[in-house]
Write a structure and sequence with these properties.
Chains A, B: Its cofactor is Mg(2+). Chains A, B: InterPro entries: Glutathione_synthase, Glutathione_synthase_a-hlx, Glutathione_synthase_C_euk, Glutathione_synthase_N_euk, GSH-S_sub-bd_sf, GSH_synth_subst-bd, PreATP-grasp_dom_sf. 2 copies of one chain form a homodimer. Chain A folds into 2 domains: about 10-350 and about 410-500, no CATH class; about 350-410, Dna Ligase, domain 1. In chain A, helix 1 runs antiparallel to helix 6 (about 145-165). Chain A is of the alpha+beta class and about 500 residues long. The interface between A and B is large, with 58 and 58 residues. Strand 3 of chain A pairs antiparallel with strand 3 of chain B, so a sheet runs across the interface.
């Protein structure tokens, strides 16, 4: 018997596809790419992910990266501008108890902390109609997945390294000159986790009590614990002496102490003073299960603690504010640089609300004529409740007065790619047609009284990929999977190599 | 309201115990202290662990550490001594098909690789009857948990750091002078994972084909994947260009190529030449589901690949060999240093087999008179089938001829400690009486023709803790939990602090 190994330079799978899938799952489980199983907090399952990075346009990615610090500043300034916030929110306040309550809370609280900490995530899709990146939404509260997105990149690197013969992976830095290469795949590096931790630590230092702690407010039976714990670990790695606590709003009703003289807040069990309140809960009404929970939010808001985010910053993330910003001369008020404001404006999809009697009929007609050209989005976080196509027509015919609860957004037509989606319980989707949504993370630590920017940074990215046959998004809801990007010149190669296997 | 924090130097819990348990579980899930759930390989659950390190005697630990390299050499030499192996195994060969088959396979295979790689784990308990460490067993195949034991130490450090006020943890190095301290806890560091990887890499380099790969032989539906993947990751970190494959015996029946001219073995899919075969399967008959699987084992054994372990090394780990070594002047043949051989001998519990007609009746009488003083252990890996107390008497009365399948070992009476055991699905055991079993990992890379020792090292340890009301062991079987050690002077403090909470 004579055994010969083919020796040519072209890429090909080294393992059969089922071994690659098995390896990928073992990697995911070993490296904490996990979420808990509902109803059993001692068991975890893999967070859905793609088997290899999706091809993407380097220039478009670089573009949204380049405008993020201006976007950070824009949203920071909007959150501080009560006049604009009120104007933008006013049509929604009478319709939406939750927004109304947040708004009133904000108006009743006196600011006692000039340091503001924000961790943003700005979500985009590439619109092939105009070959431009279009903003989907701007998240100002609980910007998730910074702790997991880096694991997916590492997973992809391991798969390409082990699973594919003659595959060389290069990590491209955004500030490096892009050298075109036909043989090397480029995956962008991701510092979302590390720099989120650094922003928190900077804010902690500005609070100026090294014995104080960081409070994570979480939902009961939180499933996305690996994502959150990664942030805790990263803080611990950089600054081991910062203590932290994880509490639900309901737990805090028994455990939070509010000192009306100093405006400090403490935790009863340890008497730890709270320097930073980091919200991974509080963005939907269900998180406040009773009035006491609302009282906790109020105590925190009017305390000296640094809030991530403040209520005003949370409100700035409402979709109605996003729609309001598309009006002329709004963003130009905050962004002095014409080029930057033009670039930011270029990411605005056409959006409209139905609160203005002068324009309402015009917009309804636009929807009637072209219902497939728009998406109706509720003015809420969470996803999963958008209206499309016939649903839009039905809403107009039967419940026209409900339109005010929605924002209409021009439908984005992102480019399609073919990939393999790995979901738990053996529900793989091999070689399916998909689209990508890109989130850019940004951090800000500012003194809102002096306008000093201690940190204004673009720190990393999130890629979520879903099949083209689903309208809905969301990794937690099972529609999307986590992914990363291949921006090399021949970035359709990987898809071809994996397809050969079938 | 005035809020004051008590400021004294004594240790106390910073979090309520339920928060500490919740934190510990989140940490375990995030850091891969996990095993798969039976029947769902996409879901994982926490590997049982203790909430804080168990108190232990530093001098006893240091003693077993100090003799491990001599132990490594002893077992390495025994594995190479066919005469001794045959003498020791001869009573079992007629009784045990599995041992017989391994023995015959070994005798029929010609050695074509002079490099031998061994990863051992030597398990002990402290016997309070004599205040000495006593060997429980010496593992030569599939020495598990090197990948997880370090995570437990990190978990304990995190719990002590975050969860306990005024708690300072110091990591003691075994070669450092031990400075007694009443305020600092000492936890021994663990390099079991890193140095296992280093031994594999050294063997790989000695095989001398950088394009070859490492083959992990695993069981179907392997649950302990995080432990195994940790080793792969560690190898990858140290030597990224080594490729590896994971296969079951059954998969190999289709995929292994054996070249009868060169005695090389390959994998069909990639034509990767196999430099090292690392067995995480093959230690019980059930792993060989058909004759083809046995043929695979034979091909590998007679190939040029470096086996971890060889069949001869696997056979040296049989309990009957362990019993045989307690006979006079056996170990002295391999260990020239009188002090070392005396020290090794001091770890031998009284053991006997029933194969010798001259002594059989005497030993049966010993058991009859004092059944509580002995344990009967089957001559097999795996655990869970020992006989105790009345079971021993029943066996003697009803099935005396079965005795030959067992080794009798004097019962060890380890010291008791109080700790908190965290098991999945909410089955915590808080403040229960427990005993500890300590495993010391050793690695060897040798040239068995020249006796050159490239590596002979003691690399780390495993601590398994179980309640005193269970006779059986095994983490995978749910009896034991992973643990680590506190060897500080006042090492009962932690137990007191955690008890105060109740």
């Amino acid at each position: 018997m004579s055994i010969k190994k083919e020796e040519n330079g072209s890429m090909r799978l080294r393992w059969p596809i089922e071994d690659i899938v098995a390896f990928a799952k073992r990697y995911a489980i070993t490296h904490g790419l996990l979420c808990l199983i509902p109803d059993n907090l001692d068991q975890a399952t893999i967070v859905p992910f793609s088997l290899y990075p999706s091809p993407y346009s380097y220039s478009h990615f670089k573009f949204i990266w380049s405008i993020q610090t201006a976007y950070n500043r824009l949203y920071n300034r909007i959150s501080l501008d009560d006049e604009i916030l009120e104007k933008a929110l006013s049509p929604v306040i009478p319709l939406d108890d939750f927004v109304e309550r947040l708004w009133k809370l904000h108006r009743n609280c006196k600011r006692r902390q000039s340091i503001q900490l924000d961790i943003y995530r700005n979500d985009y899709m590439l619109d092939t109609k105009v070959d431009k990146m279009r903003q989907i939404e701007f998240n100002t509260i609980s910007s998730a997945f910074a702790g997991l997105t880096g694991i997916v990149a590492d997973l992809h690197k391991a798969i390409l390294h082990y699973g594919i013969e003659n595959c060389h992976v290069r990590e491209l830095k955004l500030d490096e000159k892009y050298e075109k290469s036909s043989t090397i795949d480029l995956i962008l590096p991701n510092e979302a986790l590390k720099k989120s931790a650094e922003a928190m630590i900077k804010a902690f230092e500005l609070y100026n009590n090294e014995n104080a702690c960081i409070l994570f407010i979480i939902v009961p039976n939180e499933r996305n614990v690996c994502d959150q714990n990664a942030l805790i670990d990263e803080i611990q790695k950089l600054k081991p002496n910062i203590h932290f606590h994880l509490k639900t709003f309901e737990q805090l009703t028994n455990e939070l102490l509010y000192d009306e003289k100093t405006f400090n807040i403490y935790l009863k069990s340890s008497y730890d003073e709270i320097a930073i309140v980091y919200y991974r809960a509080g963005y939907i009404p269900d998180h406040y299960i009773n009035e006491k929970c609302w009282l906790i939010r109020e105590y925190i808001e009017q305390s000296r603690a640094i809030k991530c985010p403040t209520i005003r910053s949370q409100l700035a993330g409402c979709k109605i504010v996003q729609a309001y910003l598309t009006n002329e001369n709004i963003i130009e008020k905050y962004i002095n640089n014409k080029n930057l404001s033009k670039n930011i404006r270029s990411t605005f999809a056409s959006m409209f609300a139905f609160d203005n009697n002068q324009t309402r009929e015009k917009y309804i007609n636009l929807l009637r004529q072209n219902p497939n050209g728009y998406v109706l989005k509720p003015n809420r976080e969470g996803g999963g409740n958008n209206k499309y196509d016939d649903e839009i027509l039905k809403l107009i015919e039967n419940k026209e007065n409900h339109l005010n609860s929605y924002i209409a957004m021009e439908k984005i037509l992102p480019p399609k790619c073919t990939t393999c989606l790995i979901k738990p319980n053996g529900k793989h989707l091999l070689h399916v047609e998909c689209i990508n949504e890109i989130g850019i993370y940004g951090t800000m630590v500012t003194n809102v009284d002096t306008n000093e920017e201690y940190i204004n940074d673009v720190i990393g990215y999130l890629v979520r990929t879903k099949t083209t046959d689903t309208n809905e998004g969301g990794v937690a809801t099972g529609y999307s999977v986590l992914d990363c990007l291949d921006v090399s010149q021949n970035n359709n190669e990987l898809s071809k190599i994996f397809s050969q296997e079938l």
